[in-house]
């Protein structure tokens, strides 16, 4: 049994009176002695009872980071390069975890993430927000971002400034821009500053108004020659890869053979050095009735699975099947017993007292008025006493 102990019981003093001067002192339950700083728990045992956005462990954690040298080695070996778009943290995370070589923050996010009509509506600030989100998720893949319309066409200097922002503020490793021969000086200026450029030729969506819509390019001899000239021009300007969109597969294959850098096809046949698709399209994230280009193969039905899951959640909530015990946090019987004894109390804001709707052990009769401070002292003292009895 303890012969002596030094215990200072601090009580929460509720300021119920409208006059603060009646309560000049403030109390707390903190003991009046120094407390050692709390050591952080090991990462593998850290518990967090809230929603948050960790990367988590994936099967791809052990793979090396993809660099330009990695892509060049793959190209020389004839190993196809995989590219997939991402527009936020989850889409970037899953693309990286699935082993994509390149993750592209495409301006297609204007439609698939922001609900816009076409890519021409998205602006630099929009792209930067999405870049930062994707860059936080992608740990291994090489990241590239589209320069949006209006951020690079005025001059090579404007393009360089935009590219620098994408790297410094967006966390990207390279930029993509649309255009062929006419954009060669711009590509050269950006690459001279040390920022890699992926050139986009063939169908250039940002210019769909001037080319008569989203039409296949290079179907005629003259059209195919133009695509070839564009490819050679951007290569000589320093582009490290060339994206070829909506061009007949045979034409794209012949152009690929003429180049010294990889080509990434989208609707350009299997003869390119690699392939890219918009993640939202190939996963079936939108309703199946939504239009997608001919070159899109749908590999999953995320829309259907999402509808099924949400409808099941709705049924569980309506039937009160969710949340069951396994999805709720426990409380000790003693704590629950004490809480039950004061549940139903209503604070009288004017008098600063508690009116008990249900009987309380300290009340003489139901409905007694009990001073809140005395009530808290009673509970606090009982808990301290019980604690010492357990130790004895």
Automatic annotation (TrEMBL):
GO terms for molecular function: 3-methyl-2-oxobutanoate hydroxymethyltransferase activity; magnesium ion binding; methyltransferase activity. CDD domains: KPHMT-like. Pfam families: Pantoate_transf. One of its GO terms (biological process) is methylation. Pathway: Cofactor biosynthesis; (R)-pantothenate biosynthesis; (R)-pantoate from 3-methyl-2-oxobutanoate: step 1/2. It is an enzyme of class 2 (transferase). It comes from the Eukaryota. Its EC number is 2.1.2.11. The keyword Methyltransferase applies. One of its GO terms (cellular component) is mitochondrion. The keyword Transit peptide does not apply. Belongs to the PanB family. This is 3-methyl-2-oxobutanoate hydroxymethyltransferase. It comes from Aspergillus pseudonomiae.
